[in-house]
Amino acid sequence: MADMTAVDGSALAPxxxxxxxxxxxxxxxxxxxxICERIRAAAAELETCVAAVDEQQARIHPVPGKWTxxxxxxxxxxxxxxxxxxxxxxxxxxxxxxxxxxxxLRSGAGDWAPWDQLRAELHDANGTMLxxxxxxxxxxxxxxxxxxxxxxxxxxxxxxxxxxxxFFAELRWKEYxxxxxxxxxxxxxxxxxxxxxxxxx
Length: 201
Prior knowledge:
Blueprint: H1 14-29, H2 32-51, H3 55-59, H4 69-91, H5 115-133, E1 147-156, E2 162-171, H6 173-196
Antiparallel strand pairs: 1-2
């Protein structure tokens, strides 16, 4: 980890190092079943937040330059689908062959697909990941395959602003699964914040 750098060549910020430390330590501590249940809980929290949003609210840009809630939901669904496929390879003892799952993955459906459909797709994508993780066991090996992963940590600048730091990491399946939990929780918070910023009806 000491020789890792961000994509811009800078040293990893304390927030990035903390994220990597969390994934490494928790992956070693938690069983496969415990990881699955934590992801199940995070997915349920996110879906509960999304269920409180109606079609009109989902399309509004409450914060200039930021995604709508519909775009956030589309992003999570698309990411969950790709992440599940990468987990499927890792659990089968193979290194995933595809390009990494990039941080702003979207399909465009957030602009036009019916809101009920976007919500159903999120639920289905989460369910597919959970079905796969329910089959995982705790066998591990130093030679277990890893996946090249795009990591994003929010770093705090001296002037009080925050900015994302992007870097690549090689993660084994438990670390990668725990990263998906963090992703779900981050976007749960994002949906809450976007909903709070919506104009009154």
